[in-house]
Task: inverse folding
């Protein structure tokens, strides 16, 4: 049977299934028959995937907000802050690895990871040399370079732009 004809038939069967013109079991049987044993992905799988992405997005945002809260609005020691931020970087890294195929949610996890790394390096600069801005600027330039490198390697333009703008702002404050 012609491929174009199969696609039309499969689309018709899917529309029958969605409008419940035929029972779902019959539609699945016909889809398997015309698809040569393979069921095409249904709309319910796409909806479930979008719900999972929304859940992961909210979870990532909440986790990052919690880390920022720990770093700036609590009075725990700086070593504990750095430990919690390091753990968050590891969690975000594992999330990035797990969600590599999903474009938006992958980028959110990656942003959480690099922003947590920025928080860690600022805390580390404050811990190593309190009151010395030079060390902080060096760490900021390293972070900006990492962002530019990630943007180039992963083909994410916004990371490259953010790294470049961050380097320019850091250079501006270094000069002034």
Result:
């Amino acid at each position: 049977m012609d491929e174009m004809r199969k696609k039309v038939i499969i689309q018709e069967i899917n529309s029958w299934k969605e409008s419940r013109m035929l029972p779902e079991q019959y539609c699945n049987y016909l889809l398997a028959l015309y698809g040569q044993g393979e069921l095409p992905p249904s709309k319910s799988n796409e909806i479930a995937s979008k719900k999972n992405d929304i859940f992961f997005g909210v979870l990532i945002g909440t986790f990052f907000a919690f880390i920022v809260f720990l770093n700036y609005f609590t009075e725990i020691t700086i070593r504990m802050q750095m430990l919690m931020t390091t753990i968050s970087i590891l969690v975000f890294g594992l999330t990035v690895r797990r969600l590599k195929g999903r474009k938006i949610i992958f980028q959110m996890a990656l942003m959480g990871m690099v922003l947590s790394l920025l928080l860690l390096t600022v805390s580390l600069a404050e811990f190593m040399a309190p009151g010395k801005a030079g060390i902080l600027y060096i760490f900021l330039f390293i972070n900006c370079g990492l962002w530019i490198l990630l943007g180039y390697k992963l083909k994410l333009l916004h990371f490259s732009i953010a790294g470049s703008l961050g380097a320019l702002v850091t250079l501006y404050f270094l000069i002034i």
DSSP finds seven helices and no strands in the chain. The longest helix spans residues 43-72. Residues 83 and 89 are 10 Å apart (CA to CA).
